[in-house]
Amino acid sequence: MAALRWTLASACASLGAPDRAVEELDAALATGELTLAEKARFSGLLARCYSNLTRPADATPAWQESIAAARASGDTEALAYGTAAASASRTWDGRIEEALAFASTAARAIESLGPRAGAQLPPHLQIGVCLAELDRDAEADQALENALRMAEQGIGTDYLIWGYNCIARLRFWQGRWRMFARPARWSIEVGITGRPKGHAMRTNRTPDRIDVVVVGAGQAGLAVSYYLQAFGVEHVVLERDRIAESWRSARWDSFTLVTPHWMTRLPGCALEPGSGRDFLPRDRVVTMLERFGRGLPVRTGVEVTSVTLAGSGYQVATSAGRIAARVVVVAGGGQRRPLIPALAVGLPEHVHQSDASRYRSPAAVPPGAVLVVGSGQSGAQIADELAGAGRDVLLATGRVPRVPRRYRDRDVHEWTVELGLYDQPTEAVSDPAELTEAHPMLSGGRGGHTLSYQQLARDGVRLLGRLVDVHEDRLWFGPDLPANIGYADRRAAGFRRAVTTT
Fold first, then answer.
1. Which of 5, 14, 171, 438 is found 20 to 30 A from 146 (Cα to Cα)?
2. DSSP string covering 381-393, please?
């Protein structure tokens, strides 16, 4: 029975299911029927699993029990297993000197058993990782190279990938990019991205001490994770809610992208045949990002509350504890928080207010006239939808450009690429105001269509100038409506001229 539980626990731990492994190990240890050597191995693996579950308080007594049982049994291999687990635990705790001492003990114990490269590699890699953490780069180089020589004696690909990943990370930390490329590329070629979720990104550390923390599991954070994983960089993606949460809960029901599908680029993902000119609705975007996130080390339900400098890295405070990271990538997006005009507080309580992230559909808006403040893409699209549903809509306009959805049988974004506007460097922009200008009015709804002030007015939207003041039930609007319409028209005409002269 002990052998069966060991096999099951080892398999669960290797396949990224440490919680299931803990159940098997606890059940075996609770029987009291294990030999001292078996108890040492079971407790050592239990320590590793607890660490992978970010439970250091449980990991410490487990590896202590493992070492005690191994010494009592006189089993050298069991001692190596326990001290290797202790080294990993101490690395996660940031006690690197102790971790190095335990790893060295494990390596010596294994070496005394003869040429068994598969068993020797983990502690030798751990020695290299510890030396790198202590900034003893030359010694770390030597330790990792020695470990790889053992790996090349014929042990499994999995250990060899691990070894190359360790060296790749060390080169990355040292800024030795040319030397970093070879082991990183080798890892990709042998299929690191196909390894089980959560396994490829771990060496001997859990997420409370890790190379890179990525904040946010939207399209940017997931794309960063894809490349970090491809290059063997240990990392974790922290998301306070679910993957693609903003797309799920901060978009209205009929929302579609304003960019055609051929512009939706995620690494390693191919377009479905014939879908290049589609405009993806919200739910398809969510499905696409969920599918893309499979196999990436994403931890959902973990909110990052602060990031502070700490030595040569950062301390990341989260709802699940603190994480020490060498690098932090903030991929939370630049438009997560709505910009509410300060004068909105002057509206009486009986006036229902909602920002674009909370708007869902015309049916969900209380009865009566609706004022949409702002004529950027969201405001114009919401006003368009409300008017189409027969609602009485007023639109407080702003200085927003417009472009035709299609011109000369081509989508506006096809022309924008051909004109080279997306390749234009910042220093080539003559008017700095263009850098902060709103995106042009445009819609991907109903197969994609043009939005303009004239079209909205034809559909029954009452156009107003900028909202400038509120006092109880009275609102004041600026006299800038004609100027806003003229500006939008001039920008559309300028776009057509640019196309004509290409």
1. 14
2. HHHHHHHHTT--E
Output the CA–CA distances (angstroms, integers) from residue 336 to 37, 212, 220, 257, 302, in the order listed: 55, 23, 14, 17, 17
Cβ of 209: how many Cβ atoms within 10 Å?
20
Q: Using CB atoms within 10 Å of the CB of residue 340, give its burial: 0 to 12 exposed, 13 to 18 middle, 19+ buried.
A: exposed
Residues whose CB is less than 8 angstroms from the CB of residue 282 and which lie 6 or more positions away in sequence, other chains included: 247, 248, 251, 252, 253, 255, 256
**338, HSE (Cβ side, Cα atoms, 13 Å):** 18
Tokens of 299: 């931890």
**Alpha helices (runs of H) in 389-469, residue ranges in sequence order:** 412-418, 453-458
* CA 61 to chain centroid: 33
Distance of CA 340 to the CA centre of its chain: 28
Q: What are 184's strand-pairing partners?
A: none
43 vs 458: CA distance, rounded Å: 75
Amino acid at position 235, single letter:
H
Tokens of 201: 């990104």
Task: Give the residue from 248, 255, 251, 196 showing the smallest Cα distance to 217.
Answer: 248
- Measure the CA–CA gap between 477 and 87, rounded to whole angstroms: 68
Full pLDDT tens readout for the chain, 502 residues: 677 777 777 767 765 567 778 888 888 888 888 888 888 888 888 887 887 676 777 888 888 888 888 888 887 877 877 787 788 777 766 678 888 888 888 878 777 765 543 444 567 777 877 777 677 777 877 777 776 666 555 444 444 445 555 555 555 444 443 333 344 344 434 333 333 333 333 333 444 678 899 999 999 999 999 888 877 788 999 999 999 999 999 999 999 999 999 888 888 777 777 788 899 999 999 999 999 998 899 999 999 999 999 888 899 999 988 999 989 999 988 777 888 888 888 899 899 999 999 999 999 999 999 999 999 999 999 999 999 999 999 999 999 999 999 999 999 999 998 888 888 888 888 888 888 889 999 999 999 999 999 999 999 999 999 999 998 889 999 999 999 999 999 999 999 999 998 7
d(CA 192, CA 157): 10
Dmax of the chain from CA atoms?
90
Tell me the HSE value of 63 on the side-chain side, using a 13 A CA sphere. 25
Beta strands in 179-262 (DSSP E): 209-215, 235-239
